[in-house]
Amino acid sequence: MARFPRVIDALFCLWVQHGRIADGRRCPSARFVGVATLPDRRLAFTRKSVKRGCGVADAVKAPEHKLWGVVYELSDADLPMLDTAEGYGPGRTRNSYWRRECTVFLDGDADRPRPVWTYFAESEPNPPRPNQAYKNLILSGARGRLPPEYVTELEHINADP
């Protein structure tokens, strides 16, 4: 009898993380569910990536805002590799990002709640702005998938060259 990996309800990703999953190498079991909003959060750049040398994305508390992203279903077997890529280690006292449960709304519809995991950054004091390459990565995933007014907000992110 074949064994199938248990599926995590879902994972909510910012568009930068979406690329890590969509390419199929890091999370081969991933199945796209749709776009969604995370209520009372907004995009911010709250820590510096050593690899990228710029500020990187976070979902910070912001009443009355909503953060758009993408939802995937994936197996438990894929989670450790994704955790490592996000700088998260269960049980560690220090992480770059923390994986937490939250509720998102598929297609931004309050009548379609979905429990998910997502990663929140461990903020650092005085992080740099994102660079243009990182901003372009966010925009390339968002264009044609998210509401035009949200993409316009993303286009106004201040970035370093």
Task: Report what the structure shows.
With 161 residues, the chain is α+β, with helices and mostly antiparallel strands. It has one domain: Gamma-glutamyl cyclotransferase-like (Hypothetical upf0131 protein ytfp, Roll), CATH 3.10.490. 21% of the residues lie in helices and 42% in strands. The chain is built from four helices and five strands. It has a five-stranded antiparallel sheet with strand order 1-3-2-4-5. Helix 1 crosses helix 3. The longest helix has 11 residues. The protein is globular and about 35 Å long. 29% of the residues are buried. The N terminus is likely disordered.
Q: What's the count of strands?
A: 5
CATH homologous superfamily label: Gamma-glutamyl cyclotransferase-like
What percent of residues adopt helix (DSSP H or I)? 10-25%
Low-confidence stretches: 1-7
How large is the radius of gyration? 15 Å
Count of discrete domains: 1
What is the beta-strand fraction?
35-45%
What strand line-up does the widest sheet have?
A: 1-3-2-4-5
How far is the first residue's CA from the last residue's CA?
55 Å
Rounded mean pLDDT score: 88
User: Which CATH first-tier class would you pick?
Assistant: Alpha Beta
Q: What is the approximate shape?
A: globular
Kindly identify the CATH topology. Hypothetical upf0131 protein ytfp
Query: Which structural class is indicated by helix and strand composition?
Result: alpha+beta
Q: What are the secondary-structure elements, in order, as H or E?
A: EHEEHEEHH
Entry keywords:
alpha+beta; 5 strands; 161 residues; globular; Hypothetical upf0131 protein ytfp; five-stranded antiparallel beta sheet
